[in-house]
Structure formats: structure tokens, C-alpha cells
Amino acid sequence: MDFEQEIKNLEKANRILQKKLERSEADRVKLEETNSKKEALLKKVIDELQESKLQLEERGKELEKTLFHLQTMQDKMVALGSMVADVAHEINNPVGFIIGNINPAFEYIHDLFDLIDLYQQNYPNPCPEIKAEMAAMDFDYIREDLPKLIYSMKEGTTRISNLSNSLRTFTRSDTEYKVQFDIHEGLDSTLCILQHRLKANQDRPQIQVIKKYEEIPIIKCFPGQLNQVFMNILANAVDALEESNLGLSFAEIEKKNNQIMIATNLATNNCIVIQIKDNGCGIPEDIKSKVFAHSFTTKPVGKGTGLGLAIAQQIILQKHGGTLELNSVVGEGSEFIITLPIE
Ligand SMILES: Nc1ncnc2c1ncn2[C@@H]1O[C@H](COP(=O)(O)OP(=O)(O)OP(=O)(O)O)[C@@H](O)[C@H]1O
Ligand SMILES: [Mg+2]
User: Fold this and answer.
1) Which of 92, 169, 214, 296 could serve as 189's disulfide partner, Cβ 3.0–4.6 Å?
2) In which band, very low, low, confident or very high, does the pLDDT at 175 lie, cut at 50, 70 and 90?
3) DSSP secondary structure string, 269-335?
């Protein structure tokens, strides 16, 4: 009896053991499965990390290239700037002769006409030869036209002189140190250089520039770089106006009135504020955050490089500790606000 009981007990123990064995086998299989799943996941993560690393390396190389490109361009700009300044200086010399001589020439002509008047009063009946000569040259017309002609020559040379002065102001080579500069002079010289893009052409009337300059102090800055910023923002404004003109007739554009407003003022927090606003095409909401990025452009290849605003932002933020903000509504226009601290 005891023996039989013993066997039964043993058999029971054996069954339990068997079950335990089966269960642990199942556990082992499950563990293996999870392990291989984990391994696959880990491999995936490693692969992804590897991929990101490669992408980052690639991006780093690209950035390096862009930086190099920018530096070379900057060097070129500096060289070009100093050449332009030299040429402008050379132009100013001969223009100076002309401007200096036009006034006396005008006076001499005036005197000569007075003399002719005197002759005519004292000799009212000249000989036929003189009469014929006066008729042939159309003396009365010359008398009327010559002063106008001299006046327009004077206008032209004054304009050349202003332009070459502006070029010199605009290309002011920057030193390592900030210098005192009149922001209004910078804005005006930039506008003068941009004149050819503002004036009327066969497709549209002149772009109206409204200046609202308030009294602001001279500030310490890098003038050549600030002029570059003004140029980049103003050139964009002209582009935006032209884009908004597409498909419109001359008369429609005239009615819409292409306008650029430039306002300056002294803010209470010891800053000067320069606002440049156009009533052009405006910037869509989803693009606003991208316009300051390097190489972002919506302009056709060959027209825009997408560097203008990136450079402007760098000059205002890094070089001058200022801010550059943008407000824009599609179809209404855009406004760029530069704030510069007064040191
Ligand atoms: N006043 C503006 N009105 C409408 N869109 C603008 C204006 N200024 C800039 N943008 C938009 O921002 C983009 C980037 O301007 P950014 O000056 O940096 O480059 P770009 O003008 O395209 O080329 P680049 O200035 O290098 O010739 C422009 O392509 C344009 O889409
Ligand atoms: Mg631009």
C-alpha cells in the first residue's frame, strides 16, 4: 500500500515537473521572441542614428561651403566697393570742372546777348548780310533756347555729382571699429543709387517714395553694412511692387499707386527705428518664417539668390545688436522694421 502510494506521489511529482518544464520552455520561446524584437528595434534605431549622423555631416559640409562662398563674396564686395568709390571720386573731378564753369559760361552768354541788344538798339537797320545770317541761324529761337539748354546741362551735371557722391557714401569701406554715421544720409544715398529702378518705365509710372524722417541722432555703426541692409530691403520692396503689378495695365497701376514709405524715429528705449514699407504683393503666412533663411527665395533663377534678408539680419543682429522685424499682409504689402541701439 505504501509502495503504491509512493508511486502515485512520484507520478504526480513527475507531472508537475513536466508541466513546469513545458511552461519554462514556453517562457524561453517568448523571451527569445521579445529579444529578437528588441534586437530588431535596436538595429533600426542604430540605423536611423547612423543616417541622421550622415545627414548632419552632409549639412555641415554644405554650411561650410555656404560660409566659404559668403566669405569670398564679402571679399569681392569689399574690393568692388573700394573700386566703385575710386571711380566715383575720379568722376567727381571732371564733373567739378563742368559745374564750376557752367555759371560763368551762363553769365558770359547773358553779357553777349546784352551786347547784341545794345547793337540792335543803336543800329536798328543792319545790313542785308547780317539780316540774312540772323534769319538763317534763327537768332530769336537761339536766344530763347540757349539759357534753357545751359540750365539742363547744369541739372545733369548736378545729378552726376550727387550720384557719384552717393556712390562714395554707399560704398564707404568699413573699418574694424564703428564710426559716427547719419542714417538719413545712408538712406538717401541708397535711394539715389536705386533711382534707375524707381523711375517710370513703359509698364508703370514712377514708384513714389515717401520719406518721413524725424530728428534722430548720429549713431555709431558700420555705415557700409547698414547701407547694404537698406539696399537689400529697398530692392525687395521694388521687386514686390513689380510682382503686384503683373497683369495690370499702366492705368490700373497708376490708380493703385506703387509706394515705398521710409520712416525714421527715435524710440523711448534709446533706440532708433527705421521702417521701410511697401504696398506690394505681401508675404504669405507660411513663408514669413522662412524669408530670413539663407538661400530662401521665391524669385526665378538668376533673379534672386535668397541672401538679401539673411545678410541684412546678420548685419543688424550680430554686428549692431539691433532687431529686424517683419509685418506683412498678402495683397496689402510688407513692412520691415529695423531697430538700432544708440551706443
Ligand atoms: N518686401 C517684400 N515683399 C514681398 N516679399 C518679400 C519682400 N521682401 C522679401 N520678400 C520675400 O522674401 C524672399 C527672400 O528675400 P531675400 O532678399 O532674402 O532674397 P531674394 O530677394 O529672393 O534674393 P536676393 O536678395 O539674394 O537677390 C524673397 O524671395 C521674397 O519671396
Ligand atoms: Mg532680396
Assistant:
1) 169
2) low
3) TTEEEEEEEE-SS---HHHHTTTTSTT---SPTTT--S-HHHHHHHIIIIITS-EEEEEEETTTEEE
Q: Which ligand is nearest to the CA of 296?
A: 1
- pLDDT at site 86: 84
The domain locations on the chain are: 174-343
Which residue has the CA at smallest separation from atom 7 of ligand 1? Answer: 236
Confidence (pLDDT) at 289: 93
Q: Which residues' Cβ are closer than 6 Å to ligand 1?
A: 232, 236-237, 240, 278, 280-283, 291, 296-299, 304-310, 334
Ion ligand 2, residues whose Cβ is below 5 A away: 236, 308
Whole-angstrom CA distances from 134 to 109, 126, 131, 140 are 17, 10, 5, 8
Cα of 235 vs centre of ligand 2, distance in Å, is: 6
Q: Mean pLDDT over residues 58-74, rounded?
A: 89
What share of the chain in percent tops pLDDT 70? 99
Q: Please report the pLDDT score of residue 287 as a whole number.
A: 95
In the predicted structure, residue 173 carries a pLDDT above the cut 70: no
Q: Determine the residue of 291, 296, 313, 327 to mutate for testing ligand 1's pocket, defined as the one with the most ligand atoms within 8 A of the Cβ atom.
A: 291
What separation in angstroms does the CA of 278 have from each of 187, 192, 247? 15, 18, 19
Cα of 287 from ligand 1 centre, angstroms:
10
SS (H, E, C) 51-83: HHHHHHHHHHHHHHHHHHHHHHHHHHHHHHHHH
